[in-house]
Amino acid sequence: MARIAGVDLPNEKRIEAALPYIFGIGPTLAKKILTDAAIDSNKRTKNLTEEELNKIQRAVETYKVEGDLRREIQGNVKRLQEIGAYRGTRHAKGLPARGQRTRTNARTKRGKRVTIGTVRKDVVTKAPAPEPKK
What we know:
By secondary structure, the protein is mainly alpha-helical. It has helices at residues 15-18, 27-36, 50-61, 66-82, 86-93, 107-110, 121-126, and strands spanning 3-4, 7-8. It has a two-stranded antiparallel sheet. Strand 1 (3-4) and strand 2 (7-8) form a beta hairpin. Helix 4 (66-82) crosses helix 5 (86-93). It starts with a strand and ends in an 8-residue tail after the last helix.
């Protein structure tokens, strides 16, 4: 199993599809890394030689990925919260930060729906009135 930037890449996938398993590398950057390293993108991960893996490793090291990238993003969010920016407060509340509506949708950010019951008129009228205090 190939290990690049602390991530085990799946053996059976093409290297072009396996590289996006690394946080910070998407399909476009994976293609760019493979062209820079002069490696066929259709090769399976298990068929790569040590030399090819080293080339990919060196190419990936030029970019900010995994822990460093996560730390930077976390620092950016923390900075927004500390200065009291609107986006920082939205992050703190766990709501969308880029102007999306929240009356409906926004389920990814807000989580599973919680149904809130309502009190119907006929139930309120049937309930006995509270006795006056003496």
